[in-house]
Amino acid sequence: MNKNETNQWIANYRTDQPHFGLERMVELLALRGNPHLKLKVIHIGGTNGKGSTIAFLKNLLEKMGLRVGVFSSPYLIHYTDQIAINGESIPEARLESLMVNYRLLLEGEHAPALQGTTEFEIMTAIAYDYFASEKVDVSIMEVGMGGLLDSTNVCQPILTGITTIGLDHVALLGNTLEAIAEQKAGIIKQGIPLVTGHIAPEALAVIDRVAAGKDAPRIIYGKNYQVSHQVSVGTGEVFDYTSPLRQGRFHTGLLGLHQVENAGMALALLDTFCQETGRELPENDIVAQALEGTSWPGRLEIVSREPLMILDGAHNPHAIKALLATLEERFTDYHKKILFTCIKTKALEDMLDLLKTVPDAKLTLTHFDDSRATDEDVLKATAHSRNLNYQDWQEFLDQQLTEDEEKKTVRIITGSLYFLSQVRAYLMERKFRDGYTKD
């Protein structure tokens, strides 16, 4: 298969709703020799913060000289973005070759047992397969949705982490923090250490109960490790970190107050990993280089400085609150132009209620071309009923990148990560063609 055939084939397995359950993954991976059981896996779940925490952790482990595989979702440009070793995406030819192998299984004699397999399950299996064949030192696997029945949860990890718990995908995971925590806690394994981030007490109680039942040692935010934000600077956040294993002041390479918690959790994961594998803890100067050198597309990512434009995948109320805290911290005296959209399973009204609280802001809704996207008619009707603007997103970008500013302005493109993948590709093409700015 060539690249276009690859995209068309796997797109046939895309679904608007996940097909929860591990039976297909177990069957599929068994047919490939169980590559997931040949890996040292760090398994990361949670509502928000997974991607940034993984980005920090990847850099930290790489600075130790390790080969680190990372599986993340969703991709921002192409399927290859989801699977990488030391920051290098899986080569397209290799991905196409693996897809041929999986197509033979899914369409051959084993097809009945694999009925209902999804796009995400295929990509998860390919990630395990690729990392095992490349003999990485450690693979970091990001949970797609939930945890208990997520396709990544077939692994036998050496370490697990749960970043945050918030109300997201409530129709699928439950409409309380406790119910969602129960699903997220499904990644906890017997006797395997668990690192937790800044989690509300009612959700943490559920996670603690599950961990205690499995004799999983817990490394808890605020108890076993602490972080303290010091100051926001142009390129990130300065914070203090304290644990029984490490104390120091560090600088994140990612913007946003919440990145202090993500970086702190990555440090707790790093030091626990070193303990579990008998490695010496890296010195603070190595840690500082790794944290400051971390980048993660689509997370408060400045894609243009003149004019100022930021992409941020705030795709649920919990993430919107984090975005708003950063806007208040960094851009109090700026006029804000916000472009927003989301997919069908998200809490549209709740997120708009939050975005409407941003002072000196103009909020515009838009739609993007994806089967998972909220219907265009719904977005237009919502914009009308709330007295908001509605605009085609390409038109919005072209207009914002070329018009003269009457006052200091920041443009925030936010909402679905699937949407940001299209925005980012469009901006990259535009930049390649004629540059971002009117200059």
Furnish the topology, listing elements before pairings.
Elements: H1 3-11, H2 23-30, E1 41-45, H3 50-63, E2 68-71, E3 83-85, E4 88-89, H4 92-107, H5 119-133, E5 138-142, E6 159-162, H6 170-173, H7 177-184, E7 194-196, H8 201-213, E8 218-220, E9 226-233, E10 236-242, E11 247-251, H9 258-277, H10 284-292, E12 301-305, E13 308-312, H11 317-330, E14 335-341, H12 348-355, E15 361-365, H13 376-385, E16 389-390, H14 393-402, E17 409-415, H15 417-434
Parallel strand pairs: 1-5, 1-6, 2-5, 6-7, 7-8, 13-17, 14-15, 14-17, 15-16
Antiparallel strand pairs: 2-3, 3-4, 9-10, 10-11, 12-13
Helix pairs in contact: 1-4, 2-5, 3-9, 3-10, 4-5, 7-8, 11-12
Instruction: State the CATH architecture of the largest domain.
Output: 3-Layer(aba) Sandwich
Q: Which CATH C-level class of the largest domain is it? A: Alpha Beta
Number of strands: 17
Q: Into which percent range does the helicity of residues fall?
A: 40-55%
Q: Cα distance, first to last residue? A: 42 Å
Give the spatial strand order of the biggest sheet. 4-3-2-5-1-6-7-8
Oligomer: single chain
Q: Strand-residue fraction?
A: 15-25%
Measured on Cα atoms, how large is the radius of gyration? Answer: 21 Å
CATH topology of the largest domain: UDP-N-acetylmuramoyl-L-alanine:D-glutamate ligase
Instruction: Note poorly predicted spans.
Output: none
What is the name of the CATH superfamily of the largest domain? Mur-like, catalytic domain
- Main sheet: strands, sense, barrel: 8 strands, mixed
Indicate the structural class: alpha/beta
**Given the structure, what is the number of helices?**
15
Q: Given the C-alpha coordinates, what overall shape results?
A: globular
Overall residue-averaged pLDDT value: 91
GO biological process, one term: peptidoglycan biosynthetic process
Keywords: ATP-binding, Ligase, Magnesium, Metal-binding, Nucleotide-binding
Organism: Streptococcus peroris ATCC 700780
Cofactor: Mg(2+)
